[in-house]
Amino acid sequence: MAILKDFQALQNLYTATREQIQKEPNFAEGAEISAPTEKEVRIVLKNYGRIDPENIENYIGEKGYLALLLCLKKYQPEQVIDVIKNSGLRGRGGAGFPTGRKWELARNSKGSPKYIICNADEGDPGAFMNRKVLEDDPHAVLEGMAIAGYAIGAEHGFIYCRAEYPKAVKMMRKAIEDASQYGLLGKSILGSDFCFKVEVRMGAGAFVCGEETALMASIEGFRGEPRPRPPFPAVSGLWGQPTNINNVETFANVPQIILNGPEWYAAIGTSGSKGTKTFALAGDVNHTGLIEIPFGLTLREIVFEVGGGIKNNKQFKAIQTGGPMGGCLPEQFLDTVVDYENLSAVGSIMGSGGMIVMDEDTCMVDIARFFMDFIQEESCGKCTPCRLGTYQMLQILTNICEGKGEAGDIETLERLSEVTRLNSLCGLGQGAPNPVDSTLRHFRSEYEAHIFEKKCPANICRALIRYEIIENQCTGCMVCARNCPVTAIEGIKKEPHVIDPEICIKCGICQNVCLFKAVDRVS
Amino acid sequence: MINLTINDRLVTVESGFTVLEAARQNEIYIPTLCYHPDLTPHGGCRLCNVQVKGARTPLAACTLPVSEGLVVVTDNEEIHAARKSILELLFSNYYQAKPARADDELLKLADEFHIDYKKFQRSEPHFEPDSDPNPVIRVDLNQCILCTRCIRACAEIQGRFVWGLVERGIATHLSAGDGVPLLEARCESCGACAVYCPTGALQDRFADNDLIVDKKVMTTCAYCGVGCNFDLNIHNDEVVRVTSNPDAKVNGLHLCVKGRYGFDYIHHSDRLLKPMVRQYLLADSEKPAKVSSSPWVEIDWDTVYSLIATKMVAIKQGFGSDAIGLLSSAKCTNEENYLMNKFARQVIGTHNIDHCARLCHSSTVAGLATAFGSGAMSNTMQDIYDHARAIFIIGSNITEQHPVFGAKIRQAVLQRKTKLIVADPRRIDITEFATIHLQHRPGTDIPLLNGLMHILIKNGQQNTQFIEDRCLNYDEFAEVVETYTPEIVSQITGVTVELLYQAAEVMAENHPMAVFWAMGITQHTTGVLNVFTLANLQMLLGNMGIPGGGVNPLRGQNNVQGACDQGALPDVFPGYQKVIDPAARSKFEQAWHLGPIEVASEPTMKQMPGLTVTEMISKAGEGVLKALYIMAEDPLMTEPDLNHAKACLQKCEFVILQEIFPTETSEIADIMLPGVTFAEKDGTFTNTERRVQRVRQAISTRGESKPDWVILQEVARAIIELEKRTYIGEFSTWDYHHPAQIMDEIAALTPSYRGVSFARLDAGEQLHWPVKDKYHDGTPILHVKSFSNGKGIFHPTEHIPARELPDHEYPFMLTTGRVLYHWHGGEMTRRTNALLELYPQALIEISPEDSALYGIENDRMIKVASRRGEVTAKAIISERVSQGLIFANFHFPQEQNANLLTISALDPVAKIPEYKICAVKLAVVG
User: Fold this and answer.
1) According to the model, what pLDDT value does residue A1 have?
2) Can you give the pLDDT at residue A2?
3) Backbone angles phi, psi at B453, to 5 degrees
4) Which pTM value belongs to this model?
5) CA–CA distances in Å: residue B744 to residues B333, B348, B757
6) Does A376 touch chain B (CB under 8 A)?
């Protein structure tokens, strides 16, 4: 291996290695990514299963770093920004801010040095889009960062990756080392004037560090707490210097846009949202896992075609997009087109790509409680509404689930939701009420049933349900009685059994072990 | 300027303002909790959220920068409701276990928003209500609202980073260090966190007294020379608390642990409340060989005055005026020091007057006066903070001895990115903030500095223009420095050549640079030469006469600058008018002129300077000095080689001690006169930066004690009457009813204080002397266009080893100093509960290497012996000292006092003892 001293050297290496790349990707059985279904388009995940992520020459054989070469050779930084602007690429971290404009702000910002940060602090429960890119195509991220560095005039980049992703950290470090050895990072890249180095910084498991200002505080060595904006990072970011921060997926799109042109990219997607989006499809669908779809599919297409429909032929109840601060949408929104505008129009968000499908056996109050529990625990505690508003909401939701709901709780939730949404410092607090708001809006009757009838319509909330044996279905096989951990079930062999509600701890084992579907859960 | 609209009003403010600042400047009220003007805005409480046109959500006014055309609404129904909800949320996680303090900002807001907080607060405490053992700060996290003002105060004011947040969500809470008691988290108990706390979560344990405070009196601190101002809180004629006052010019709300919490000595039961005499004096019998064998007897003032007058006049008659010595005090006011100087020179007729400045900065005064014509600190603390690009601290443990200014230097490094070079044989606290720490061997300051200047000159980095225009004797100086090559210097000092080059580079590249020093420079047999060398450095770099530069000796005592200014020195009258100058002599002779003594005739004022304190002690030992009048000093704690000093003073025929407590010196005293503390008198102190500040009486005097100025006046009158002398000169009388009159007399006779008056000070004027007349604003920076003596003079200096260095028998080097929690001889701080609890006994610092060698663990009793005495105290193993070096303090009496070990070798010019170096040996006790 020799350092690639100039543009030609990289071209030559590409020519020498491109034949080694297998044309058809391998998808191992049970992998987190399967072969794309008909509706999918793969740009970010394009190299998955085709290249060895630890082999930089594999990446180069896939036109790797040719986008960087093109930028250095042919484009002024402003032209790179124009390409990105024309492509319509929007930030994949969740807010969807136009990437080209963000770069332009950082480029025009006075001050030196400037920094590039890759936000790899993927904290949404169940989401792993970024992890797969970091693990399986690390050079695409590095190349995107280097191009961004060239565009805004930064020579130093940081990848802020959560420590819970040890393999991603390892892959990125290896990629940085290799790219530096090949002269694709470091001083005078490919013989040009452009210098760019990248470091990996590990987060310590705080969800809020995915928020860009908290992330920067964390890199600086402070507690991960968000800072007020303005000033925005483009003006005053890391160590008070102009900083451009993008998500892993955003950076991974960049080389493809440069190579294929902005028109190619802009042709994919909807009028306001261009290109593709990766999602971690989870919950009660038949095909869970990572998907990449062009903007413009409907939720229904995602759930029933890409996801293969609801498991066990149950009824669809709701879909939650955008991670814990996303909204839960009921069936009447299934024909919503998935893009930034439409999701927010119906009260949810794109987020970074979490997508959870819920079937009929889901209690929406319990779901709201679950997400609020997560958010409350992850609130950094800096601002009052987020720290205490979420706690108050969690208390009320817990009470409702436990059958201790009172008249007025819904109104209090609405008031707290508004105070928290409007007055919190960062997106975490501002988005925190979304699960409550959306479930209140679309599933209010479930709240009312819990509060006023002390019933959980989905039969989920343990305090509100009981197990009963259906007399005419029970064969008296005694399996349930034998398995009951608290011996709450009585009965003579071949006679219908009875559950003593005083002793029953509602663990549900009886229902699981009954071969005759004779145990019912009622509210 | 930026134009914006607040509540339909067009306002114009400076750019860089926040919306909150813009609103406040225009008297538009926005409630706040986490905001404090002294601290970096936080934006956490969200109480100051305002509506901004075009913004998605309300934004915090405290962090929102103003921008052109911004349209802001600060209050409406919606905003009010949100604020009320936020307050209710805060109360939902709050529990008030103790009655609220009067200035509780949170509860004031509860009133303002009509919130019955008891309805919202938690049903029971969720934290232990008094969870930290710190003796001065009470921690009750039940009242914490996580505004983080304490965290920011600790970081941005004290620079100590004790407080932080741990956990997340509802579990988020304040934590000292990693969940340890404050003191283990490196807390210095300055109390800043408690001052800035808007609730009762962190409060001063003395805050309980707030409810009973009758009045507050602003005065000047009686500890170090920084000269902080604060309010004495009075109840029933007693000081019950010290609170800081945002109007304090030197320190704002900041104070150190001694200033804020070290006040209860004022009411200590040891206070002298009546004059006392040894019984033998009343019995008219011979003085016993050991005067302490004669018991103390309480006596009335008239009798004691007549006793003193009789005795003093007899000694004057028998042995001449110069058989009497007077020790004035850096703890007393300018007015009292002036009177002691007048008493010595007019009533007694001697120049044998001195005070503890001899033991701290006499070498500074001598050195700087020779080099520049003025012996004082040339710049102010604030101009240095604002302008210095580099700060060089040599021989000053600044964060412990001048804590409020030490904290300011930490902030200069943190916030202004000032480069800091520290030269100190010990790894003192401030080295944590240093760009470079030069850990040179004790007593090698001259080679170290010459070595640095050698490099600067070799690199052509000297300020040639400045040297040519303003200095003399450069060539002779440069010739000597030439010989101090980095290699030789490295050998002598133990500092690597590489570090010398790095330090020189920082000095060369960061102009202006301010130099600070204290006892580490002055308390050497080469004290004056050390000071010359620092003066050379600042001339070489052209750092004189400009903001952010200068030579800055940090004065130790509250009024050591003033005591020197007022002529409490054997060679100068007030304002450094020289005794050897016939014009000055004649001026004071005339001003103070008394009619002839009928009983004996003395010549006019002596032409030669009198004895220094160190000389008085040896003269007493020789039997030459017969009487000593000591005002508020404790030589038997603070003199070097105490065994010898005591032996000498025991030979003195008549010793008067004017004090607030019986001290170690009481043992050899014949008479004790009860003086008062700073809280019981009026006057002025002059701080380290020549700023004259008011001391205000806050309580009446205790028992029969009297202010020192009153006692001096009455003693003077008694002697003058006994001698039947008449008052002739314009300022010959002793008829003062208030210290303001004394200051008027000082002003009349002292050019540098000519414009100082109580009226100006009470009007809030900040006067740094020289104040040339009553219209002059004072002189914050000295030597601006020219030096006080015209041109600055380079003095070539050479390395002279310390008098006593370690040898085979005494293999360790001992260096002495002070600690944060105590003050000099400790007479006040050892009588302050909190300070004694924080630091109850002397600790001897010993390096980890030596402790391993001797098998010494922490807290083990060890015995340290020199050729002159021995000390037994607890060991503390510390990386602050390097192998072979031992550090001990002189705050605790008897066998714990390091001055039993120190050597009385003197600087030949300044007569300052070499406290900083002597040879000792070490043994484990038991």
Assistant:
1) 53
2) 59
3) -70, -30
4) 0.94
5) 14, 23, 6
6) yes
Q: What is the pLDDT of residues A20-72, one digit of tens each?
A: 777 778 887 777 788 888 899 999 999 988 899 999 999 999 999 999 999 99
Cβ pairs bridging A and B (under 8 Å): 95
Chain B residues touching residue A378 (CB < 8 angstroms) = 168-169
Residues 6+ apart with CB under 8 A from B200: B96, B98, B100, B101, B104, B140, B143, B207
Cβ neighbours of B169 in A, within 8 Å: 376-379, 381, 387, 390-391
Question: In this structure, what is the dihedral angle of CA atoms B407, B410, B412, B418, given to the nearest 10 degrees?
Answer: 150
- For β-strands B59-60 and A289-294, DSSP reports them as unpaired
**Residue of chain A whose Cα is closest to the Cα of B84:** A419
Which residue in the set B42, B49, B169 is minimally distant from A378, CB to CB?
B169
**Token pair belonging to B736:** 């003062």
What average pLDDT does this structure show over A318-344?
93
Contacts of A207 (CB under 8 A, 6+ apart): A123, A374, A378, A428
**B85 in contact with A, Cβ within 8 Å:** yes
Q: In this structure, what token pair is assigned to residue B74?
A: 């600060």
Placement of tokens 């508003």 in the chain: A389
As a whole number of angstroms, the distance between CA B637 and CA B625 comes to 20
Write the residue in A228, A376, A421 that is nearest to B170 by C-beta.
A376
Question: Is there a contact between B169 and A223 if contact means CB atoms under 8 Å apart?
Answer: no
Q: What is the pLDDT of residue A94?
A: 84
CB-based contact B361:B555 (threshold 8 Å) = yes
Question: For the complex shown, is ipTM > 0.95?
Answer: no
**Which structure tokens are listed for B658?**
């004017």
A218 and chain B in contact, CB less than 8 A: no
DSSP three-state, residue B393: strand
Contact B47 A228 (CB under 8 A): no
Q: What average pLDDT is seen over chain A? A: 94
Q: How far apart are CA B327 and CA B611, in angstroms?
A: 11
- Residue B443: phi and psi, rounded to 5, are 80, 15
Distances (CA, A) of B476 to B117, B369, B446, B453, B924: 77, 20, 16, 14, 51
Altogether, the residues listed in chain A come to a count of 523
The answer to whether the CB of B653 falls within 8 A of the CB of B683 is no
Rounded to a whole number of angstroms, the distance from the CA of A261 to the nearest CA of chain B is 34
Buried b (16+ CB within 10 A) or exposed e, B112-142: ebebebeebbeeebebebeebebbbbbbbbb
pLDDT of A523 higher than 90: no
Least confident piece of the model among A148-162, A348-362, B758-772: A348-362
Closest CA to B887 of B864, B853, B858: B864
Specify which residues B239 forms β-bridges with: B234
Residue type, B44: G
| Res B598: pLDDT | 54
N residues, chain B: 926
Closest residue by Cα to residue A424 from A401, A393, A400: A393
Instruction: List CB contacts (< 8 A) between A382 and chain B.
Output: 42, 44, 146, 148
Low-confidence ranges of chain B (pLDDT < 50): 599-601
pLDDT given at position A150: 98
SS3 assignment, position B322: helix
Strands in A115-120's sheet, in edge-to-edge order, are: A197-203, A156-162, A115-120, A243-247
Alpha helices in A360-508 (DSSP H): 364-378, 384, 390-401, 409-423, 427-431, 434-442, 444-448, 479-483
Single out the residue of B637, B695, B644, B669 nearest to residue B816, CA to CA: B637
Pair B629, B658: CB distance under 8 Å: yes
pLDDT of A67-105, one tens digit each? 999 999 999 999 999 999 999 999 998 889 999 999 999
